[in-house]
Amino acid sequence: MDYTILSIAPIFLAPFTAFVINAFFGKKLPRQGDWVSVLGIGIAFLFAFRIFIDFYSTYSTEYYIHKYFTWFDLSYGENLFKIDLGIYIDNMGAIMLLMVTGVAFFIHLFSTWYMWGDVRYGKFFTLMSLFTSGMLGLVLSDNLLSMFIFWEIMGFCSYSLIGFYFEKEKAGYASIKAFMTTRVGDVFFLLGILAIWHTVGNVSLPDIYAAIANGSFEGHTVIGISLATFAGFCIFCGTIGKSAQFPLQVWLPDAMMGPTPCSALIHAATMVAAGVYLSLRMYPLMVAGGLTPFIAMIGGITAFGAATIALIQTDLKAVLAYSTISQLGYMVLGVGVGAYNAAFMHLITHAVFKACLFLSAGSVIHSVHTQEMPEMGGLRHKLKFTWIAMWCCTLAISGVPFFSGFVSKDRILGDALYVALHAGQGFTYMIPAALGFIGAFLTPFYMCRMMFLTFHGKPRDQHVYDHCHAEHLKINQNVPLLILSIFTLGVFFSGSLTGQGFVKIFGSKNEWFKVLVASPTESLDKFAYYTREELGWSDTNEKEKPEHSEYEHQSGFAGPNHENHEGLHHAHVEGAFGSIIIVACSIFFAFLMYIRRSIDPARFVNMFSVWVKALKNKYYFDHLYIDVIIQKGLLKFNNALAWFDMGIYDRFAIDGWEAVSRVGYKSSNWFDRIVVDKIGVDGTAVATNIFNIVLRLIQSGKIQTYFIVLIFMLVTFVAVLT
Amino acid sequence: MPEQTLNVFMPVTIMMAIAVILFVGALAAARLLSPRGKKTDEKVMPYECGEEPVGTAWSLFNVRFYVVGLIFIIFDVESVLMFPVAAVFKKLNEAGNGVYVLIIFLSFISVLLEGIAYCWKKGDLDWVRSFIVNKNIDK
Amino acid sequence: MNTTIAEYFLSFDVFRSFVSRISLWLGTDVTPFIVFMIFLLGALVITLVLATVGGFGTYAERKISADIQARIGPNRVGPYGLFQLIADGIKMVSKEDIAPKTADLFLFYLAPFLAIFGVFSTFAVIPFGSGITLTDLNVGVFYLVAISSLVGVGVFLGGYASNSKWSMLGGMRGASQIISYEIPVTLSILAMVLLSGGMSFGQIVGSQGAFPHQWFLFHNPFSFIAFFVLFTGALAETNRAPFDLPEAESELVSGYHTEYTGMRFGLFALAEYVEVFVVSGVAVSLFLGGYNVPGEEFGHSLAGQGAQATVFFLKTCALYYVVIWIRWTFPRLRVDQLMVICWKYLTPIAIFNLVGCAVWLVVFDGKSMFELFFHH
Amino acid sequence: MISLVSYLAISLLLFFIGLTLMIARKNIVAILLGIELILNAAALNFVAYSRFAASNIDGHIFSLFVIVIAAAEAAVGLAIVIHYFQLKETIHIDEATELRN
Amino acid sequence: MYVNILFLTSALLTVGCAVAMLIARNIMHSCIFLLGTLIGIAGLYVTLGADFVAVTQTMVYVGGIVILMLFAVMLTGGKEFVSRAQKLLGLIPAMGNKWSFGIAFLTSFVFVLSQFVLIKNIVKGVEVTKEAKPFVSTVEEIGELLLTDHVLAFELSSVLLLGALIGAAIIARPRKERVAND
């Protein structure tokens, strides 16, 4: 297909135009302009579908579209120093676009039912459009800088959507929390971009791949560590922030303060997907920087930790929120163990079923006007349709065979098992894999618990039950649920029911997903001799479409050693059977506990009382961040303030230089510690002391003091660089 | 440096220099010729219709003036950007690109119009509606 | 492209050989020096002429107002009171220079300088003839608009520094009026830049002709309106009646120069009168065909230059007359009316003109109305 | 002889003065003045490089947009200052600490 | 010769006014010195052959920004700068004291020095064209660039200015309550 700017740009521009129209004229339009947003995302979906069909019919890993123009070029001599802006779509991008537009379309459609009658109905759609267009822009971007721009747009939108009901104090705090927590990751991300720009001279993805393939990163160091590691770490920190990985996971559970459709969008299609998408895009860099064990570890911890917290939640949306964190942990684990393809697949399948889950939850909440599961029960009689849809998704997320979650999650687990046991990596990957498997046991349990508590059994609160409206089928309420729950079937992602050619969807190809999405590490060679041709928009440098060739089965993995295909296949079979058994046990266990009630949950609570207390406090992370770091620091700082306000000028006058340089020194010191020893910092006296001194000096609230500190930071930076 | 080629700017500079000289010269002449009497209190008192001046004049201000200045500076900058475009408009029109340039030009101006429409609607262009002295300063 | 008065002189063979002979005689290339001297002399002459014209402005003002009011006007000093201007000058110089004691002296002394500087700097680009332009900058009109905005600062500072309430009010009004009316004026000028395809006065005047149907005034309906927008805006920018609010003598004593005496006041007044002449000249160059005289060859000769300058002066003086005429005909506006006229009438109309001119240029390929009607 | 370095030196000096102004002054308007100086120093650099080291005049365009942005910045910044003054009756920078806690 | 004189005059005006701006004790005077600095920079632009930028500088800054600054100074109390802190502590004059200046001076100096170290090599790396370029007016080139390469920036700048206008107008608009109170 011959692409021009006109056949790609509407994917981003249609939602964005909808945003602009709604922002300016939303109030004057009929229905407050919701149809503009739906129409915008619908148009984007059509265009994305067209691109997807093209990629699917081409069926080649070599095929990609890359169009760009040079924004500015400050190269001098041999040193490249420029920024291109453009569009880069490969198979992964095409699938991602289809997923984002599709899921977002259904969420928009659902919102027209869910949000109808809300005070700020029009504003909600305005923000949703901007949110979606931000995500689409990020997927389309061919370079890190424009990715970062869209990344921040999404950050802003999530801030305003989470705090959508800003009358509620909690919502306001949650939005600030989300914004500030992700901001920590963003700063690192920006730092990573700068590091890459400094080395490569360009931030465009193909250029970065080419630089890695050509070994441009070798030999460069930043503060003593290799530049690839530094940049990879910084960019992965962006993922940690955005995808709510350990230790910055605290914002996502609170993000449910927003309206449910926006939660669906954040959890499924946009915000958290962006983080994983970024780490997938920068996968070669992670590999080059040797960060994969670290990533796997983070992923394993997140997957496990969030799953345990989800066990004791009573809030319907909180369970879903923690399940999201846990599933994101799986994706990151997948990235870490080299299951590039599987991680991406899980991103897609998760987006579909999590969107469906949230919409269903929205449907339930809208009907019963409460989010507490203990007050529900027996709702399946009244909300039959939602019940079925939600069960489909629960089975999918649990990893029951023939559902999408099984296809993707078990491939991640299989790979994890493989690298842990057979790849000769020693113990490096053991813990993440083990954590992953325990998480896989917990997932079906807490999901089924949620289902049982909500829909099964007897109504626990008759009042709530009686007030629940019986479900009437509505197009904008139930069609999204229907379609999304259909797509939780694994057959759409594996091509056939079992992967072996039985029960194929018409026109599909066996394991097309596995074939199409190839890790860029594999194709790095194709970028090794990649030279940029200066082409304008009108020209195109697509690769020639290769002949429609039969796919030769080859492993799509790289990173950790994956040479032994036989062993890999073996591990997969082991993993698959193992996880089927685990899932079965888990569901049975939940069944016993919450339907038959032959096991009393209270017994377990008593047995693990200390742990449960930790779980109830979310592992004390909020406590650590808010009470220890902020409160203790600020409290003492406030006490010191009166003295300090009087004294600052004296201080500068008497030991001006010393004080100023101490700020720089201490801040960098603090920085190191907080990043490196964050886990260790649990309110020990030393840490708070350092913190106090720094805070007292830099948190004076006086801009010029900040300014001086900033300048000295910069000077230090320059001193380090040169 | 290309000395000859910057000659077109020389008269500008010379003219400015003449302005300076004229100013200085005129004042010097005045200094030489004018009588210098004793500076009595009445003479150096700011004119307030013969009364004793009440307070200082440097507190009399209306926010309206700032809003006008604000609208002005935005329009000023926009017209600055339009100048080079207008200067090449005719040439590009003769080269056959007139419609393209016209579209760009019109979209630029339409944004300008949007600004003035906004200010009009919000009453920033009216003067009387809030002809209120900022009383804060007088306190 | 950039032609200066020096280049004009050097285009004569006689003059060039004269210069080269001197160069030979002195053994060094004196062209730069000659060029400098030409510039200096030209600048001095133009300053002198315009300062005199500005001086005569006061005389003309009084004489014409007397005429309109059926009086005689100044008639004691010299024939028809012609030397009144010299008498005024002597009076200015010999008056005592007083500054209020509470004034901000630095700014008080600086303000008239800024006004004078802003006005006199514009002389460098005013086209008196195709050769008698000190310099024909490629950014000519733009430069003129830019540098004359210094006057606004001068007026504001004059009002501010005096620390008198009348001055303050006048200075405020003056500054906001001057900046406000700069917008319609700039936009009208922009329309003419669009039509002529260049910002230099040479280009703008050159794309018009000697006869009225070649003037930009009658180029198309939009430019016809644009002239009146520009003229109204120019009146306001120079604080002329009916826009003389900054110095409204019946309400603000004398506005921003209430506290100024002697030569400083004289300089303010001089700047003001000369500026009126300058904006009249600009309006003439932009809309009324400028210095154009019939005949291409004739225009280049020395006699032609004389004719051009004469034509230019006549047109400008006619416009100057209209300015004075308006002053003694229309009542002064209120300050809210002033703003309403600028922002709600003149600016939208100016934008409309600009758009109209652009569309006209594209649709009719730059042809004027007369060319469209009669050129077949 | 005038060379690139002379312009860079002037630009550096302007930058220096602007920065000092920004840090030393306690009046917010004065700080905005400092920012204007810094912006101008940057714009001057653009044009100087464009003249001495580049074959095109993109530097001019850049400095043009610097001026545009400076205008927008001044307009909004001063508006904020004025509004702040109406609220607090001071524009002392050290009293603008509302965001501290 | 002419260029050198122009350069020297402009540079002196620029730097002199900037220094005066730094040491002026009156904010109004600072604004006026800013005017001088900006005109000086316009002169420097002329010596660089950037006629359009020079005039733009004059137009926007002299006609616009400086007047706006003067208005703002008037609106925020003018010369009589009242600060509660000043009354409280009695040692922080609004225009800075010697300590604040000392700190600022040292900080800026260190910063500029570090920047100097940083860009020194880059400056060396830039090839300086030695041959004199004939002066060609930049107007047409700028116009064409604005319509081709930089058309997006051109259009977006209008949007930026619109945003600035609306934002600043909302912020600076006289309060309704105030009207009611009076």
Number of domains of chain E: 3
Shape of chain E: globular
**Given the helix and strand composition of chain D, which structural class is it?**
mainly alpha
Q: Find the biggest chain interface.
A: B-C, 76 and 96 residues
Shape field of chain D: elongated
CATH first level of chain D: Mainly Alpha
Please give the alpha-carbon distance between the first and last residues of chain D.
55 Å
Count of spatially separate domains of chain D: 1
Number of helices of chain E: 8
* Average pLDDT, all residues of chain D: 81
Write a concise synopsis of the structure shown:
The complex is a heteropentamer of chains A (722), B (139), C (376), D (101) and E (182). With 139 residues, chain B is mainly α.
3D architecture notes:
The complex is a heteropentamer of chains A (722), B (139), C (376), D (101) and E (182). Helix content of chain B is 58%, strand content 0%. With 139 residues, chain B is mostly helical. Chain B has two domains: 4-33; 63-138. In chain B, helix 2 packs antiparallel against helix 3. Residues 130-139 of chain B have low confidence and may be disordered. Chain E is built from eight helices and no strands. The longest helix of chain E has 28 residues, at 98-125. Chain E folds into three domains: 1-80, NADH-ubiquinone/plastoquinone oxidoreductase chain 6, subunit NuoJ (Four Helix Bundle (Hemerythrin (Met), subunit A)), CATH 1.20.120; 97-124; 138-182. Chain E is mainly α and 182 residues long. Classes of the chains: A mainly alpha (722), B mainly alpha (139), C mainly alpha (376), D mainly alpha (101), E mainly alpha (182). The interface between B and C is large, with 76 and 96 residues.
Characteristic key phrases:
heteropentamer; A: 722 residues; mainly alpha; two-stranded antiparallel ribbon; 29 helices; 4 strands; 68% helix; C: 376 residues; globular
Write the layout of secondary structure elements.
The complex is a heteropentamer of chains A (722), B (139), C (376), D (101) and E (182).
Chain C: H1 5-10, H2 13-26, H3 31-68, H4 84-93, H5 105-121, H6 140-148, H7 150-162, H8 165-196, H9 201-206, H10 221-237, H11 262-287, H12 296-300, H13 302-327, H14 335-363, H15 369-374
Helix pairs in contact in C: 3-4, 3-11, 4-11, 5-7, 5-11, 7-8, 8-10, 8-14, 10-11, 10-14, 11-13
Chain D: H1 4-24, H2 28-52, H3 58-88
Helix pairs in contact in D: 1-2, 2-3
Chain E: H1 2-23, H2 27-47, H3 51-75, H4 84-89, H5 98-125, H6 139-147, H7 151-172, H8 176-181
Helix pairs in contact in E: 1-2, 2-3
